[in-house]
Structure formats: structure tokens, C-alpha cells
Design a protein that fits this description.
Blueprint: E1 4-9, E2 13-18, H1 24-39, E3 46-51, E4 55-59, H2 65-80, H3 90-101, H4 109-116, H5 131-146, H6 157-170, H7 201-209, H8 214-225, H9 232-254
Parallel strand pairs: 2-3
Antiparallel strand pairs: 1-2, 3-4
Length: 256
């Protein structure tokens, strides 16, 4: 069985389809390089990589092979990794969703940059960083990102650079550096937004994509905030708040 094959698509498009997931990381790296080369062909209008039934990823000729392979691998693991079930308080869920829903979208990039200046920067690579500090920091940034639905729809290159600079100044790191973060802060299990309580791996992945190339920026940020109060980002915030409330309740009981 071949690891992959390609098929023509309507409108002069090409789809590279992964057939064998036994060595998915190696296969994605190889196919990503080929797909980028194809995307540079002026006779081809668009190129995508597909893992059937799991994900589709559009390829841009300016993309980086390693970035695409890593992005697809993260999304693949997000979809296929078993999710640890946790109980979410229904009232708390609605409270958080209502707060997010009522938070107005930023009207322009300058409003986002101004809001980000109110986020106290941290070094996520510091061995002295506490998980409480990390989740509070990530939550503030995630709240800001969720309010970006309007400004990222047609964001130009200049504003994209301002956006990335603002994220970097707050302490965001590229996805390639997440492996250097203390597992107590960003354990690999935290890739999935619905289960990464007390863990900032998921937001670090999203934050890091805003520092990468255009297609990764557009794809991952839109995926994270699409649906606003029903988005991945909102779900992550709900999980964090639910966990914090459980800890607070436990402490109150022990102090009685």
C-alpha cells in the first residue's frame, strides 16, 4: 500500500491524499514538500493535502514544509487522540459563553494591539513559571483573540505583522519551541482544547501559529475563534474557569 497519492480536482486543483497513517509524521513532511512545489506551478490554481475523513489542509506556495507538516500533525492528533472526560458546570459554561458573546469584536488592529499591551508578558520557557501564572496569562490572550473575528477576515500583510509583533511582545513563542516548555506547564496531552485544563499546550499552539506564515496564521486563528462563544478558544476558557472553580470550592471546604 502506497503512503499517498494525488488526484486532480475541478478548477485546476490538486489534492494530495494520505493513504497510510502508520508513519504519518514522515509522510506529511514528504508530501508537504511536494505539495508546495506543485502550488508554485502557475498552471495550478490550488493545492490541498487530505487525510480522508480527518482533515484537509490548503497549501500556499510561500508555505514552509516543516510548518505545514507540524500543523497537520497537531491537528491530526487533536482529532484522533482520546479525550479525557471532565464534568463542566452548566451554569458556569453559560456564564463564560455569555461574557464572551457580549465582548465586542475589535474594530481594527490598533484596538487589538492596545488590548494586548494590558497583558503582562511572561516567559513560558522559564523553569520558575507557575501553572497558575501561565493559565491566567494564556486566558487573557485567548479572550483577546476571540474578539478578532472582524479584523482577521481581510487582514493585510502590514496588520498581520503588527498582530504577530503584539503576540510576540506578550510572550508568545513559535510552535517549534513549545517542546522546550516545562511539561508541567504545557504537557503534550493539552493539545486538545476540550481537555487541557491546567495546561497551556493548546493556546501555545494557537499563539505560535500567529507568528508563522500567512496560511498557518489564517487557518489556525480562524479555527480557534470561529463561532466566538462556541469556538475552540471559548471551550478552552470554559475548561480553565471550571477547573479554577473546582479548586476554589475544594479549598473553601478544607478551610471550613
Amino acid at each position: 500500500m502506497a503512503d499517498w497519492h494525488f488526484e486532480p480536482m475541478s478548477g485546476r486543483g490538486i489534492s494530495y491524499i494520505i493513504d497510510n497513517i502508520d508513519n504519518i509524521e514522515k509522510t506529511l513532511k514528504k508530501v508537504a514538500g511536494i505539495a508546495i512545489s506543485t502550488a508554485k506551478d502557475p498552471e495550478v490554481n490550488y493545492v490541498e493535502i487530505e487525510i480522508p475523513g480527518i482533515l484537509n489542509f490548503q497549501v500556499n506556495p510561500r508555505d514552509n514544509k516543516k510548518d505545514i507538516a507540524q500543523s497537520m500533525l497537531i491537528q491530526y492528533k487533536n482529532v484522533t487522540k482520546p479525550v479525557k472526560k471532565i464534568d463542566i458546570d452548566k451554569n458556569l459554561r453559560e456564564q463564560v459563553k455569555t461574557t464572551i458573546k457580549n465582548s465586542p469584536d475589535f474594530k481594527n488592529i490598533d484596538e487589538f494591539v492596545s488590548a494586548m499591551q494590558n497583558v503582562q508578558p511572561i516567559s513560558v520557557l522559564s523553569k520558575d513559571l507557575k501553572i497558575e501564572q501561565a493559565t491566567e496569562w494564556a486566558s487573557k490572550i485567548m479572550h483577546n483573540l476571540i474578539r478578532c473575528g472582524t479584523i482577521i477576515k481581510d487582514i493585510n500583510n502590514e496588520d498581520r505583522k503588527k498582530f504577530a509583533s503584539s503576540m510576540k511582545n506578550a510572550g508568545a513563542i513559535k510552535t517549534s519551541k513549545i517542546k522546550n516548555v516545562d511539561p508541567k506547564i504545557a504537557d503534550d496531552y493539552g493539545r486538545t482544547s476540550s481537555s487541557c485544563y491546567n495546561n497551556i499546550f493548546f493556546p501555545l499552539c494557537i499563539f505560535g501559529q500567529t507568528l508563522n506564515n500567512k496560511s498557518n496564521f489564517d487557518f489556525w486563528l480562524n479555527e480557534c475563534i470561529n463561532g466566538k462563544e462556541n469556538s475552540w478558544g471559548a471551550q478552552w476558557l470554559i475548561v480553565q474557569e471550571n477547573y479554577n472553580q473546582q479548586v476554589k470550592t475544594k479549598d473553601d471546604i478544607e478551610n471550613e
